């Protein structure tokens, strides 16, 4: 069983960097230029604070694809784009500075150990205030929660992989569905194998999760009336169950899922941040036929 490579993903994926997932339509997200922002020197200063839950959502999403990432910073917000080593799954996210309790930053790029940041955040609870402060001279990041300060050594940006560039392509079908529907379809498909087909049928007016095992098969249908929004086209793509489940789990809980689906091109799975001006999306390479 083989899967398309990082090169094919980057040639056929779209980041939709000027769009944001909402219940009915995509809107303009945080004003952050992801591409250029991840290739700069370390900023001279950074101080930001906010709810532990928001930072946990950010770094949990990145942690689904990599343990180290470039964190782009400018005075209007932050941006991260990262991929797994195989290039099968990528995450791209932006959050506006106005989403944080305080945000004061110079433009630049940090190399961050995602696991260490998540460890530091794990001592807090939703509603707790976390403070981040950069010490540019020592190349460290201080994370303070309720008087407990964790000092994390930053990675040299040049030691981390160059951020993947993802040119725009036309992905004809768009489906907005609830997180419960998404989770149910993925769980049902995963019971039968490590891959499934995601199908949009414009004539039937539905999308389908379809999976087959050695003897059994499964189809989970969601008609137009079951969906939050539906822009149909006749498309079908085969996907890795574990990759899509991980990406879906990386999106914030309780937010509607937006899927951009095309024929044998990467799936774009996206969501807005609850209670924040920002959006994240995963780009997942299609499986190749056996």
From TrEMBL:
GO terms for molecular function: DNA binding. Residues 1-34 are annotated as: Disordered. Residues 24-34 have a biased composition (Acidic residues). Residues 53-144 form the Proliferating cell nuclear antigen PCNA N-terminal domain. Residues 1-23 have a biased composition (Low complexity). InterPro entries: DNA_clamp_sf, Pr_cel_nuc_antig_N. GO terms for biological process: regulation of DNA replication. It comes from the Archaea. This is DNA polymerase sliding clamp.
